[in-house]
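Table 4 source record.
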Amino acid sequence: MVCRLHKSLYGLKQASRTWFRRFSSAIQDIGFQQSRADYSLFTLVRGNSITMILLYVDDMIITGNDEQEIQNLKQFLNGCFRIKDLGLLKYFLGVEVARSKDGISICQRKYTLDILEEAGLLGVKPTKVPMEPELVLTTTGSDALKEPAQYR
């Protein structure tokens, strides 16, 4: 799900603060509690029903054990903000989510491949030790790397 904030400019530092403050206020007004351990996590417990929101900038995951509560929350958010429901969670912040009859599994395969591609290491052969097999290490100094940013 994606939400948009009105009356604040995207790209400015205060835009994310304004958005978060407005979002937090709106959902806390309907009973959600903000986690003390992770300020981007909000929970609502009503009887046996629990609904959770995890917010990152303007992307969020909504989950819970009561489908009607989730639908009510989406309607509320649509009334407060312009939202776009992207359906079941498939990818969020570098984590792929897959569902099967056995449950949910997560992995970071795509994120890992993106890092390898960025570093120019996508086509290299795997190795148990990340150095030349016959390399002899010494304590003498050497010239600084020409492009150290590549290795950070």
